[in-house]
Amino acid sequence: MCSMTSFIDTHCHLDKLDSTPEEAIIEAKQAGVQRMVTVSVDEPSLDFVSSMVQQFPEVYGSVGFHPHDAAELTEDLEQKIRKLALEEKKLIAIGETGLDYHYMYSSAEVQQQVFSKQLQLAVELNLPVIMHSREAETDTLNILQEIPVPPLGVAHSFTSSFEMAKTLIEMGWYIGINGIVTFKNAEDLREVVSWLPLDRLLLETDSPFLAPTPFRGKPNKPAHIPAIATFIAELRGISLEQLSEQTSANAQRLFNFSD
Asked: Which fold has domain 7-255?
């Protein structure tokens, strides 16, 4: 790994890896990944994320409820998210939150209510939002256009349409790209990534999910960011150094990391 090249994994789940967080962080740093954002999805991961950001200088966190777990978000847990985000400066975003109509673990109505609540919380706390949207493009865009939303956010693990990408860019948001871009059947996503303004692109793994080629079928990890970055740099016809510098600057602008 070129010593000039460093990366940020803007979305991972360190609590779900098949290694310890310590091992994953050491391996990531050896691969040039200098910062990681570990993301909560439910009540247990709120506590995990909060403890990780206190233990490891390289780790920042986001607090929120995934659409799969939307039905579990009580008023007390909403207060807990608010309290954590107010008290810990290394909790730098709200999420992941959004809509997922693939499995429907929570009803569409509940998902929409909880997504709206977390968007409002992000506005209240002046934090960016990490958004998940799967097979729910119309409803996602409707919510984003109907209520006040944070000026900054990221559509993580983006697989939606060109039109949705354009709308999000016009809003001033970012697009998170992970190993899916390397998959054989991801031609539409590659078109979006080829077009995407470079100052709106973020790198992520979504570890332990969605390992990039050539690691398909194995658990993903933050150390795989360089494989994703190399693929995107070649797709865009730019150097790996340029991609690493720009995506790291983008992440800094979005999340306002403080050392």
From this structure: TIM Barrel (3.20.20)
